[in-house]
Amino acid sequence: MKLGLKRDEVKLDTYTPEWSNEFDRVKNAIIKNTKIAEQQIEHIGSTSIIGMDAKPIIDILVGVDDISNLDEGIINGFKNIGFLRLKVQRPSEIVFARFTDETYMVKTHFIHLVEYRKELWKNLIFFRDYLNLNENAKLEYLQVKKAYLEKSSTGINEYTDHKEDFVKKIFSLRLKEFSC
Q1: What is the pLDDT, as a whole number, of residue 90?
Q2: Measured CA distances, 41 to 11, 20, 60, 123 (Å)
Q3: In the predicted model, what is the mean pLDDT of residues 126-131?
Q4: Torsion 170-172-173-178 (CA) sign
Q5: What is the pLDDT of residue 174?
Q6: What residue ranges define each of the domains in the chain, with the CATH number in brackets?
């Protein structure tokens, strides 16, 4: 298994269970190096969807009580296992990445730090679980991703924007499920 994408590169690799094994290794390292409990660390993104072709980057969701009052020990713990805070500005989320080396050209992992069991946490977990249980949704998502790649192999922001309507559609299903 080879992980990593260069800056702004977009490509999909065939699903491998090794992605789950790599998540488990990193999860154990996070637990060992921070005070974060096991249930506050989840594998998300396409590498967590069984059978899904995905960008070869492991996405990890980490939940904390208050993202605005972050314990410095968490940041230091992430740094100890090779994760650096990115300048990405997203509401309710802090993003960290692990790179292949000190050139910082190839990212292999992301940590998405969010508030535990709040809206974003719930949406990201629901998305993963829904696609793992719904073959039609999984195939539709794969078609959306491949449609972008037919046009380009670069433009990570454009790729994310291209998938946004599908992702929001799945998120809305969670809200409908709880409003009934």
Answers
A1: 83
A2: 26, 13, 7, 15
A3: 98
A4: positive
A5: 87
A6: 5-179 (3.30.460.10)
